[in-house]
Design goal:
The chain is mainly beta and about 425 residues long. It is built from three helices and 22 strands. The longest helix has 14 residues, at about 20-35. The radius of gyration is 37 Å and the shape is rod-shaped. The N and C termini lie far apart (about 85 Å).
């Protein structure tokens, strides 16, 4: 057996054995690199001849900083057996020995410290724009790339222009803390992000016995719903009711300054606009008052002609037209997502006695009369609220005496979202 030594490093070697050769070579390289440096290699008689897969300990037992303290320290048989039994491959240690025998995480590489001058267990640094200071990767389907835990402090603390980027097939970040903060992320600069979370299902998912997500402090607003589909702002959002993808009840969306809430799951689901900029003269509890406008006139629009008792007609009540020429002068005057109209329904050129009933699209059952006429040649109107179906569509039903008929006009005064 031979012993090589310097003033700071002691390396104990034994006759070569195939199973331990790569470990001894690595240890010799570590010793050579440490000559004249501040680090000390701490090895014991067992760790020097350890087989591949067994633990080695490199570290400094001093508590006065990276230079002061004893130059090297042997591991006791008990300590070595503990490392081996707890699955620690390499341990880099600063300060006094860490004697907690309840190691929670078996690992290939460990960094422990009890030194106030060396308070960080593992530190990663890079000045390369395409590099990462610390990389945690797990190829298992439900594995974890980086796990941060803290008894009463902070599990993961990230600061910088892009403080933390986490990508995973099942979750980007999973952080828990019994007290304190599971994640603290601080972005510096006007265009920086503390946390930028991108996920196929959800960017951030919160699970808590209290508040799943809580915003406590902000110099502007506690919550910001971005009105674009990406953070670059190059893809404006579409009104939820006009989409073709599936959504879940409970979703909330901001589009063009309007706040939407999904009340029933589906494709695209059932949405209600909670608040937003009024399209007309006022806004109150989902109602938008507009300057009265003509949406349909059977005397000159398609489908044209009087409606005869016993027949129905499907209409799209969407665009405003000129009352004299029937030419569209305001497309989408009733916007996508409208669920009901406040309107005047007028009958003209009546024949005999009859009625009209205006229902949501495809509902052909007469539930109640929207307007009635009692004789031929009458012009009557009624202010009503009618429910829309489909994409701003209704079904108009005519009833009454045999042969009864009428032309009719629908003028909008407001709509509900």
């Amino acid at each position: 057996m031979t012993t090589e030594s310097t003033s700071d490093v002691a390396i104990v070697d034994e006759p070569a054995a195939p199973a331990a050769s790569s470990r001894r070579k690595m240890l010799r390289l570590a010793g050579a690199a440490a000559i004249g440096a501040t680090a000390a290699a701490v090895v014991g008689s067992n760790s020097a001849s350890a087989n591949n897969g067994d633990p080695m300990l490199l570290g400094n037992a001093g508590t006065g900083g990276p230079i002061a303290g004893t130059a090297h320290q042997a591991i006791s048989q008990t300590r070595y057996d503990w490392l081996l039994g707890n699955g620690v491959g390499f341990l880099f240690q600063a300060g006094a020995a860490y004697n907690n025998d309840d190691a929670a995480y078996r690992c290939a590489l460990a960094g422990w410290t009890t030194s106030t001058n060396n308070p960080n267990g593992i530190y990663g640094f890079t000045n390369q724009a395409t590099g990462n200071a610390v990389v945690g990767a797990n190829s298992a389907a439900n594995g974890t790339g980086v796990l941060g835990t803290a008894g009463s402090g902070t599990g993961v603390h990230a600061s910088g222009k892009t403080a933390l980027v986490a990508e995973g097939t099942s979750g980007g970040i999973n952080a828990t803390a019994s007290a304190g903060s599971a994640i603290v992320a601080t972005g510096q600069g006007a265009n920086s992000y503390g946390v930028l979370a991108i996920g196929e299902v959800a960017g951030v998912a919160g699970l808590s016995g209290g508040y799943s997500v809580a915003a406590y402090l902000s110099t502007k607003a506690n919550l910001y719903l971005q009105p674009n589909n990406n953070f670059l702002g190059s893809s404006p959002k579409t009104v939820p009711t006009a989409r073709t993808d599936d959504h879940k009840a409970g979703e909330m969306e901001c589009v063009d300054g309007d706040l939407w809430f999904c009340v029933a799951s589906g494709t695209p689901g059932t949405w209600r606009r909670l608040t937003g900029a009024a399209a007309g003269t006022g806004f109150n509890s989902g109602f938008n008052a507009v300057t009265p406008g003509r949406l349909y006139d059977s005397r000159g629009m398609t489908p044209a002609g009087a409606l005869v008792a016993g027949s129905t007609r499907d209409l799209i009540l969407r665009d405003r037209v000129d009352a004299g020429t029937y030419v569209v002068n305001a497309a989408n005057y009733v916007p996508a997502g409208a669920v009901a109209l406040a309107c005047n329904v007028t009958v003209v050129n009546t024949v005999s006695a009859g009625f009209l009933s205006v229902n949501p699209l495809a509902d052909t059952t007469v539930h109640a009369a929207t307007i009635n006429w009692s004789a031929s040649g009458q012009i009557l109107n009624n202010g009503v609220n009618i429910t829309l179906g489909g994409d701003r569509q209704v079904t108009v039903i005519a009833g009454g005496n045999a042969g009864a008929s009428t032309d009719f006009v629908i003028d909008v005064t407001g709509y509900y979202l």
